[in-house]
What we know:
The chain contains seven helices and four strands, in the order αααβαβαββαα. The chain is mainly alpha-helical. It folds into two domains: 41-91; 95-169 and 183-286, Sodium:dicarboxylate symporter (Proton glutamate symport protein, Orthogonal Bundle), CATH 1.10.3860. The chain has a two-stranded parallel sheet. Helix 2 packs antiparallel against helix 7 and helix 3 runs antiparallel to helix 6. It is a multi-pass membrane protein. Keywords: Glycoprotein, Membrane, Symport, Transmembrane, Transmembrane helix, Transport. InterPro entries: DAACS, Na-dicarboxylate_symporter, Na-dicarboxylate_symporter_CS, Na:dicarbo_symporter_sf. It comes from Trichinella nativa. Belongs to the dicarboxylate/amino acid:cation symporter (DAACS) (TC 2.A.23) family.
Amino acid sequence: MTEAEEQSRMLTYAQEQQQQNLDAKSENRLSISPTRNRRSKRSSFVNTARTFGHRCHWIRACHMEKDKLLLLFTVIACVLGLVLGVCLRGRSPAFTPRELMYLRFPGELFLRMLQMLILPLIVSSIISSIAQLNSKTAGELGLYTVLYYFTTTLLAVVEGIILVMTIRPGDWSTDVNIADDAPEAAPCLSSAVDTILDLISNVSSSGNGTYKIPTEIVMQLSQEEKDLLLEAPQTRLGKGMNILGLIFFSVVFGLFISLQEEEGEPLRDFFKSLESVMMKMIAVVIW
Length: 287
C-alpha cells in the first residue's frame, strides 16, 4: 500500500469518526429537548397556577372583607348613635315633637322594612327546609322543633311564676269598692294552668293574616285583689306575632308537601325561590 493510499484511508476514517460524533451529539440534543420542553411547560403551568391562586385569594379576601365591613359599619353606627343621643340629650332649646319625629323616621323606616320581611322569611324558610326532606326525617325534625319550643316556653313560664311568687315584682295596692251584697267581677291572677292553656290555644290562632297578630293571654291581677274580687277570667290582645302558630303551620305544611313526591315539586320550587328572594331582599335592606 502506497503512502498516498494510506493518507486517503486515514482521512476517510477521520471523516467517518467526525460524522459519528456529530450524529451522536444530534441524538443527545433530540433526547434532551423533550425534557427541557416538559420542564418549560411545567414551569409555565406552575406560574399560571400560582398567579390564579393569588387572584382567587384576593377575591376571597374581598368577599371576607365585605362581610366584615357589615359588622364594622353596624358597630360604628351603634356607637355613633349612642354618642349623638347622649350629646343631644341636653340640647337647649329642647327638640320639638316634630324634630324628634324627623330623627326617629329613618330608624322606624328600617325597622318596619325588617318587620315587613320577617313573616314571609320565617314561613318560606321553614316550609322549604321541611319540604326538601324525606317524610321520615321531616316528621322527626318537625316533632323535635315543636317539642323544643314547647319545652323552652314551659321552662320560661315556670321560671317566671317562681320568680313572681318569690320576689313579687311590681306589687301594689289598689282601692277597690266592693258591694256588700255581691262581689264584683274582675280579671283574675294568671295561673300556670292559664299560661299552659294560652300556649296550646295559640298553636292554632285564627289571626295569622294581620301584621300584628293578636294573641290571647289571661290578664294578671295581684293576689290581694284576687282575694277581694270574684274570679272571672278575661283575655286581652297581646302585641306581636304568634310565632308558635306560624311555626306549627309551616312545619305541618312542609311535611305534607314532602309526602307529595312529584305533585309537590312545584310547591317545593316555589318556596325555595321565595326563600332565596326574601334573603336577597333582607340583604339589600341591611346594606
